[in-house]
Design brief:
Strands 4-3-2-1-5 form a 5-stranded antiparallel beta sheet. The protein folds into 2 domains: 87 residues; 90 residues, Pdz3 Domain. The protein has 242 residues and is of the alpha+beta class. The longest helix has 47 residues. This is Probable 26S proteasome regulatory subunit p27. Keywords: Chaperone.
Amino acid sequence: MGIPMDDNIHTPTLPSGPTTSGGAPRDLSKLTIIELTQEKERIEEELSALSSVLSSHGVHMNTTLTTFDGYPRDDVDIAQIRTTRTRIIRLRNDHKDVMAHLEKGLHDHFANLQRAQDASTTTNNAGTPMALRTATGDNSLSDAGLLGTPFAKVNSVVPGSPADQAGLKAGDTVRNFGGVNWMNHERLSKVAETVQRNEGRTLVVKIARKDGSGQTTELDLQLVPRLNWGGRGMLGCHLVPL
């Protein structure tokens, strides 16, 4: 007797319709930076969930679904895996589109701020509004604000590890990890890829650290991922997404 479809434990509980909420495709060009960021995070969350579906079957995107002699495997749910893979491919394309619009929006935003600052400086350098000076002066917005938004926190550091030698401490928040930032870290998966690709090479890690009085210090640390340092992994620290 066959198993009813409703009782199939491999039936997905994830949405399988359009990747955007509401059913109709969203016009990304009309979304604000905040809305684009929210869309980016939503897509990344769904990609993570779909990856877990594949993992539950013991497969990934490139795992073969046929036996050595070309027959369909009977130990996995091929239909479910194919559906999940198709969804992942579609979401990855959506993510690329969102990132392109987000990067353009940020570029335009800062270009407009720079033009406003230049115009204000030309007409009355001494009378630049405080709000404009705060947004554009000494790169405060790009260094510590929107472009430098922390995306991960150092949860723990093993003594004597590469992370420890670089100066990382528990409680540090990460703004940039070898070129990975809040816009492209994809739930820290890009951090892991960067580490794997750069064994023995120096990575610049931009962090923010608060002292006992609540003052924040910005630091650029040089971290060299490596194996065989005496512990697990290539860093010796545990990062958690914010």
